[in-house]
Structures are given as structure tokens and as C-alpha cells.
């Protein structure tokens, strides 16, 4: 671990610091040369898709695009370390339970299938045949297929995801919780009914044309570093970049582009945000509604003075629905509650709206700061309202841009990893594969935890991810997993979810993206879909980490062949030739017409996005304005009401610069000035004074929950966090995930989308041990 210190970082994001950090991580993984060579194939026409994030690649350029955190993800996969059966069996699971997430990850790549041996409390080597026989036996023994749960994390390729959902539906359930349920679920839920597609509408071309880019609740310097290149280019062109974030994030302030030789040599850097609004955690809905209100007020003035209209009245008349009721409710809305809830002054909200109204082509981007709240769907629909007011949808340089996380999380949904599949999709799937898909909706992530807790689900199978660490309410989730008859993890690395296991347990190692995938018909490529609906090929070029690894499609095929003895699907033949899987995808999903041909083009192809053509696939055939009153009954208010004697804060949980979700690469968060620590709480200086503590003190965090009816009152605790003074509004705290997941109540999730509210947890602080 690096030296522990808290020290203000005032350099730019990127720059030489980023290059140094990559060299360090490649060395640490023991792959200085192999890793560097591997990186040269990232996002290349004939290379692999970077497993770092879902931000698109600029034309899959032929020159290597440097990205610090993409490089860390690649180095983690290409590591020289091996978690052989001997390494894993060297400790009992009780002993592994004491290891940190960092230590579990550091064991390296898993090399052989492992089965849990209750006699010795260890994972032991097993054979693939034995592993599939155990899965088949357990699944077939269940009286109801809905007693099995099939989780997916968003790194899974289209081909693997398609086979996986087919297997699970032939088996008989729609129990498909996925990481999206904790991530951009509200974006899909908010966008589908309003613009007819549950995805973003823009492309990188639009980023080149926009004259204003709004960034809500996103930290691209850490989580989508290549996005900074687009923001920087836009800023240099004179576009406004407006950030809405409670925390001052270095990457949203200044960036030194490692692509820019002159800038690197002169230690120069470029500003990113032209304007920065530090709103309250959870203040976005009020801010956005205020911005809409101001735009309407500006239009009133323009109309009165005979000036050009501020609203795009032609667009609204031709394309939109529900404008009159939206307008009427907006006029009723008074300013005070908007100001109070946003944490910004009325002048600031008006300024943000004036900047928006003064721009011709506006893109709105958002991330987890928007989605992981109780009222996230309404907030996203308020973003849509704001865009609709000035026709900023479906034209060049404008649109909605939910910035997805995992590199294929969007594609997995397209492939049918969804607990609430559309009937038309199921019809087609059944027709193409000759079976009757189950129709009842399955469980999502929160529902899966609940089902396991209730004993309604007994087998848990995970295609990637780290369910035990990523989900809310750690104590409840662990109880849920431990109650299972069987837990199965398909994975590249050893992680927490393998340590928190069912009565029987399997850990099944697979190939990673960077590796050659050799099947009966030769080396295979897979496809992925990025955040802007671009679908393209990905093929690895490193030798597999072990000769025993299966590819994800082959693993699914063998699991299916073992389990579904009456299936008409030629499982092994499909997994022997991924082009044949793509033919089946095309047969089920019309948007993939000519799939195998289209992916031959470098950079692939874009899936049709009706909203970006101003074709609205909504019931009314129009884009919908959504009317939402200010939410009144907020969890933090209920808690403050009941606990009048203590100071209640709103805690938001986020990512450090040295992690990929639950994978901890290191203990530094360079841009926030944290070194050698992960258990920190960022707090405003005045709040520190108020509670009689100082930076450097250690505290315990208690999460308080009061249910909607006021009846269910619960407390959760996480201990020993270091207080760090930070530029964050009063009343708000920030800390890292997954360490804070024990604090997220299982029953607290977003309305309709059911995303855990991990960005707004009511908490109190107390001196550690005090
Ligand atoms: N290196 C790296 N890259 C990643 C990941 C990773 O862990 N590491 N994770 C991937 C995944 S799965 C995802 S989903 C994305 C996540 O990428 P982001 O969406 O950037 O995720 P977070 O780090 O959770 O934080 C989001 C930002 O929201 C701000 N925020 C917190 N609360 C609020 C609020 O109430 N309102 C507003 N406006 N802002 C708020 C925080 O200060 C922070 O800057 O990144 C992906 N890329
Ligand atoms: N409190 C709080 N909780 C959160 C969030 C938050 O902001 N705050 N964010 C949420 C979000 S946005 C997300 S997306 C989820 C993430 O939830 P998950 O997707 O479940 O978690 P990850 O940490 O991304 O999963 C990492 C694991 O994936 C496996 N893996 C890596 N590569 C591969 C591969 O190629 N194949 C296979 N089969 N396995 C692989 C490795 O075992 C690795 O340990 O967490 C959510 N949880
Ligand atoms: Mo995510």
C-alpha cells in the first residue's frame, strides 16, 4: 500500500500522473511488456473492446488512445498472477473471509474449476464435467424453475448473453437480475415511455456539433476518462460545459490530454467545465424543474416583447404530447421549495437555465449521481422535459446521453438479459428455437435478494460480477446467499461472492476479452454494444491464462446441454462457431439484419435508434412531457423528523480512482487527494466544526431507515472511517463503495426502476468506538 496521506491535488486530470500510474500498475501485475503490448490492441479494428467502460471509441481509430483506467482494467486481466487450485485451497473459506477485496483480487487469474468441500471448508479442484453435472442435477431437482436465479454483470458479450438468456428461458424462468438494476435502470425506465427508446440518442458526431454539454452526476475523469477528450475538444471549440455535482471533481475542472504531445511536454492542461454548480446531493430534480420553469419564464418575456421564442414551439406542436399539463403544473410550482431542495440559489438555477436557453445544440449527459436515488426516474424525465422544451432531441449536436458503466451492459439488455422481457421478443425467441418461453416477469436484483432470504429461491448462478459486494444491505445479501442450496460463479478472478457461498458452491473460470478464444471452427470474436448503440467485434490476442479455461459461450452451452436434455437447440454447435450465434440473434432481433456482414466494417455499425430520427415509439406516437410534483416524503426528512436530537446527513457512495466497481486496484484516489486509504468520509469544513470533530478523526457511520409508513425503523452500521475535509455542500457526505454497502437499506430503492438508493443514504456520524 502507498504511504497514507491526505493531500490536496491541484494538478489536472490525466497528464504524466496518468502515464506514471499505468506504468506502476503494469509492473505490479508483472506484465510490463506483455501489458503494454496488449494495450496497443485495445479498441483497435482487429483488437479487443476495452473492458474499462462503455464510452464509445472514436472510429475505432488506428492510433492507440491512451486511457489510464482502461489500462488498469486491461492490466488486471492480463496479470501474470495465477489463482491456481493450490493457491485457493491453501486457506479455508473462514480464513479467506478475513482477506480484503484487494487481497482476493490480487490472487490473480483463476485457472481451473473449483468446488466447495464442506469437510475441509475449502475450494478444491474439480472437472468441468463434474461441475456441469452438479448444476444440472440441482436445477433439475427444483420443483419450480423460478427457484433459480441467473445474475449477469455487464461485461458479458452479446453472444454469451444471448445463449445465456436462451438457456435460462428454455429452463423456464425470467429471473434475470443484472448490474443494470443497480445502475442505469432508471434511465431505461425514464426514457422508454417518454421518447420510445430506453437508450441514449447521441453519437460522438453529436459531441462534435454541440455548443453546450450538461454533465449531471458523473465523474468522467475517473470513470470514463476518454470522455474527457470529447469534453476538452468541445470546450476548445467554445462550447459550454456545465457540470452539476455536489463534489468538486478534478477531472471536471482541468485535464491534460496524454494524446496531446505538446501539452504533455509543456505540462499544459485545458479547462473542462465552463460552469460548475455544486448542488445538494439529490438536488437534481428540483434544479431541473427550476431550469424548466426559468426557460418558460424567458419564453413569456420573449413573447411579450415580440422577440424570437425561447421554446421550440414548432417542435412541441409537431412532436410532443402532454405539454399543456406540464406547463400548467410548472406555473403552479413556487420557487422556494426548488431552491431549498436543490441547494442552489434561485440566481444559480436561473443562470444554468439561461446558459441552456442561450445554446442552440445541447447534449445532456448523466451518470450514477442521477440514477441511484429514490426519485431518479422523475429526475431523468425532467432532463427529457428540459431537452424537449427547445427541441434538443433527434437533431444534430443535441440529445440525451446516459453514460453507461460496464462495457457491454447496454448490449446485454438488447440480447434479452431482462427480468421483464417484451412479449414480442419472447414470441420471436419461442418461434426461432421451438419452445414456449416463460411469460411471468422474473426478479430483479433487490427481488432476488428478497427471494433468497424468503427461501423462495435456492440456486444462484452468476455470469460475472460480484453480487455479494455490489448489492445493497450487505448483511442481508450475505444471509441470502448463504441460504442457497447452490451458488455458481462464472468468473475470471476470485472475489467476495465466492467467499460468501451457498451450501454447495462452484467457481468456474473463463477466458477474458484480451485472450484468444479458439473453438472448433477456429479463433472467435465476440460483439459488444457501447453507450451510443455502436455494435462492433472484439477479439483477444493473448494466450489464455490457463489451458483449462472455457469461453463464456462454451460454458453456457455445456451447462445448457447438461441441464436441458429435451432441448432442440444445437448448443455445442452454436458455441463452436459464434457466427452461427449471430445468425440466431439476427433471426430474433430484426435490428441485427445482416449482423455477420455488418461487423466486418471497422468500428461496426449503429443500431437503429428511433428517437434520434424523431420517430417516437411511444403509445401516442409522440415524445411525452412528464409532469412530476416535487417529491415530498423524502427518506432523509422522515429520519430527521424521528431523530431530532442528532445531525442527519445525506451520504452519497461513489468510486475512487483506483477501483473498478468492487475490484480494488489500489488505495489511492489521486484526484481527490487521498493516498493509502479507502475508508474515508468526505465532509464540509463547517459541518466538521458543527459536530465537534476534525479532519483526521475516525468515525463510525450509522444509517437510519424509516419506512414510508413510519413503521419499519432500522439501523445499520459501518465502522472506522477517516474524516476528510472536502469541497462538498453542507449536510452532504461522500464515501466509497463497496465499503459503504452495509449502509444501503434493501427496501430503499427508486420508484418503478427499483435501483438501490446508494447515492442518498440518511446517516449520522459518531467518533469511532465512542
Ligand atoms: N475506472 C472506473 N471506471 C468505471 C467504473 C469504475 O468503478 N472504475 N465503473 C463503471 C460503472 S459500472 C459505472 S455505472 C460508471 C459510473 O460512473 P459515474 O456515474 O461517474 O459513478 P460514481 O463514481 O458513482 O459517481 C458519480 C458522480 O456523481 C456525483 N454525485 C453523487 N451524488 C450526486 C447527486 O445527488 N447529484 C449529482 N448531480 N451528482 C452526484 C459524485 O460526486 C460523482 O462525481 O463508471 C464505469 N467506469
Ligand atoms: N453503494 C453502491 N453500490 C453500487 C454502486 C454504487 O455507486 N454505490 N454502483 C452499482 C453499479 S453502477 C454497478 S454496475 C454494480 C456492479 O456490480 P457487478 O457488475 O456485479 O460488479 P463488478 O465489481 O463490476 O464485478 C467484478 C467481477 O467481475 C468478474 N469479471 C471480470 N471480468 C470478467 C469477465 O470477462 N467474465 C466474467 N465471467 N467475469 C468477469 C470478476 O470476478 C470481478 O471480480 O454495483 C452497484 N453497486
Ligand atoms: Mo454501473
From TrEMBL:
InterPro entries named in the record: Asp_de-COase-like_dom_sf, MopB_CT_YdeP, MoPterin_dinucl-bd_dom, Mopterin_OxRdtase, Mopterin_OxRdtse_a_bac, Prok_molybdopt-oxidoreductase, YdeP_MopB
Annotated ranges, domain Molybdopterin dinucleotide-binding: 649-758
UniProt-listed CDD domains: MopB_CT_ydeP, MopB_ydeP
Cellular component per GO, a single term: oxidoreductase complex
GO molecular function terms listed in the Swiss-Prot or TrEMBL record: 4 iron, 4 sulfur cluster binding; formate dehydrogenase (NAD+) activity; molybdenum ion binding; molybdopterin cofactor binding
Superkingdom, natural source: Bacteria
Pfam families assigned to the protein according to its UniProt record, in alphabetical order: Molybdopterin, Molydop_binding
This protein's record includes keyword Iron: yes
GO biological process per UniProt: cellular respiration
Obligatory cofactor(s): Mo-bis(molybdopterin guanine dinucleotide); [4Fe-4S] cluster
Positions of the Molybdopterin oxidoreductase domain: 109-491
SUPFAM superfamilies assigned: ADC-like, Formate dehydrogenase/DMSO reductase, domains 1-3
Keywords: 4Fe-4S, Iron, Iron-sulfur, Metal-binding, Molybdenum, Oxidoreductase
PANTHER family assigned to the protein according to its UniProt record, in alphabetical order: PROTEIN YDEP (PTHR43105:SF4), RESPIRATORY NITRATE REDUCTASE (PTHR43105)
Homology family: Belongs to the prokaryotic molybdopterin-containing oxidoreductase family.
Protein name as it appears in the record: Molybdopterin-dependent oxidoreductase alpha subunit
Taxonomy of the source species: Bacteria, Pseudomonadati, Pseudomonadota, Betaproteobacteria, Burkholderiales
